[in-house]
Automatic annotation (TrEMBL):
InterPro entries: P-loop_NTPase, Rab4, Rab_GTPases_membrane_traffic, Small_GTP-bd, Small_GTPase. Its main location: membrane. This is Ras-related protein Rab-4. Belongs to the small GTPase superfamily. Rab family. The gene is RAB4B.
Length: 213
């Protein structure tokens, strides 16, 4: 039986090696921790259909390798991404210090309008923390990112990170800020009838509270 959905969003999971990107993706799709996780070579892929704001959305998620030697390969996957999880490890200042470069790549190679949520992963390792919540929160605010701390081990905030990003994209479609018809938007209609339901240009946007907190 074929899947039916209203929208398809292309997502990226980016960040330095060893931050738990593959484990986050695995937990989101399989609802369990990936025990035997090795470094991703190149790119891995996963997808899941979720309900967001009353709409059915299929997330196509590309999990990119964090090592520098794969950078030229993974950069080609940035094109046409609607959303991204930018991941660092709260127990590794080195991965946090690399965030600015990852962010520049995403906004340059994917789209200036890409919706990004910053994820401080390995929240379960509180005793080994090197990056404070406040510090990362400030970085997110300065760079207009959403922010959550996650744990791929316990599952804390894993689903919420993906859903929060998807919800923001959906809000931007409904307000007219993002156009699924635009080439390279990272958004496709799953249901053709939705094209007719879109508001005509210039119509007042529905008042909706943004979740870019």
């Amino acid at each position: 039986m074929s899947e039916t959905y209203d929208f398809l969003f292309k997502f990226l999971v980016i960040g330095s090696a060893g931050t738990g990107k593959s484990c986050l993706l695995h937990h989101f799709i399989e609802s369990k921790f990936k025990q035997d996780s090795n470094h991703t070579i190149g790119v891995e892929f996963g997808s899941k259909v979720v309900n967001v704001g009353g709409k059915t959305v299929k997330l196509q998620i590309w999990d990119t390798a964090g090592q520098e030697r794969f950078r030229s390969v993974t950069r080609s996957y940035y094109r046409g991404a609607a959303g991204a999880l930018l991941v660092y490890d709260i127990t590794s200042r080195e991965t946090y210090n690399a965030l600015a470069q990852w962010l520049t790549d995403a906004r340059t190679l994917a789209s200036p309008n890409i919706v990004i949520i910053l994820c401080g992963n390995k929240k379960d390792l509180e005793g080994e923390r090197e990056v404070t919540f406040l510090e990362a929160s400030r970085f997110a605010q300065e760079n207009e990112l959403m922010f959550l701390e996650t744990s791929a081990l316990t599952g804390e905030n894993v689903e919420e990170a993906f859903l929060k990003c998807a919800r923001t994209i959906l809000n931007k479609i409904e307000s007219g800020e993002l156009d699924p018809e635009r080439m390279g938007s990272g958004i496709q209609y799953g249901d053709a009838s939705l094209r007719q339901l879109r508001q005509p240009r210039g119509a007042p946007a529905p008042s909706r509270q943004s979740c870019g907190c």
